[in-house]
Amino acid sequence: LDTIRTDPTKGWFQLLPFPSTTEEHGGQLGALRLVVRLVEDRVLPPPYYQPLIQLLTEPILCPGQPPAGTALAVLEEVTSGESRQDVATKLVKIFLGQGLAVPLLDYLTTRELARTTDPNTLFRSNSLASKSVEQFMKVVGLPYLHDVLKPVVNRIFEEKKYVELDPGKMELSRSRRISFKGSLSEARVRESSLELLKGYLGDIVDAIVGSVEKCPLIMRVAFKQLRRRVEERFPSAQHEEVRYFSISGFLFLRFFAPAILTPKLFSLREQHADTRTGRTLLLLAK
Questions:
Q1: Which residues contact 65 (CB under 8 A, 6 or more apart)?
Q2: Predicted local confidence at residue 25, as pLDDT
Q3: Taking the complete model, does pTM exceed 0.90, yes or no?
Q4: Which are the contacts of 280, defined by CB distance < 8 A and separation ≥ 6?
Q5: What is the DSSP string of 50-75?
């Protein structure tokens, strides 16, 4: 282990076109400078990682120890916003491999619930608990997400309809003067845009509502446990809806909406959306 490079190789490199290509284009081709970062990871045989796995799973398998001194609690304290997502992703994969993903999420969310006094801020920050639930949904729920959203997302990409609600961004005829902002053409653009958005959104909502049986069982078990913990933390009648907001916040704000906004990041499309389609997706996600 002492021989492993501790700092990744990083540097700037200039890319130039081939001489023949430059000549064909009359010398008009430019040059690019890329920053390249090379990271070397060495994967050791599984027995080497067993002590670490035992340390991480100890608070789940042996819940009697003081919660503040566990490895998971320490990770919560030492991870920053930049590294928290990577840590959450690795934790979820480790605990999925051990069959302990749901207990992990229960442990982390219970700790965050204990620290939360205002239910309106519950799971709103990028804490280790929130990031772990988010990464958990991406790992186990990606096929489900594709099944629900891909037909509508593909249709939006194929139709390339013009959708805009902001009068300052509407592309009307060139003859339109600034004083005609309330003109019929602007009203028509807004009306047609609303109809298109309602149609797309209606199809998305119908697909989500009708997909209950397709949702992975492990996701349903995790959210059932989360609902029970929220009810225990905020049992009063005035907080009755918090149990639902906590789950919908994860499902919509951290799962469905980001996938609609950037389909490529969720492998729903091979390429990023063009400007027009991207605007439609942004309005839908909002």
A1: 58, 59
A2: 56
A3: no
A4: 156, 161, 163, 196, 197, 200
A5: HHHHHHHHHHHH-TTS-GGGSHHHHH
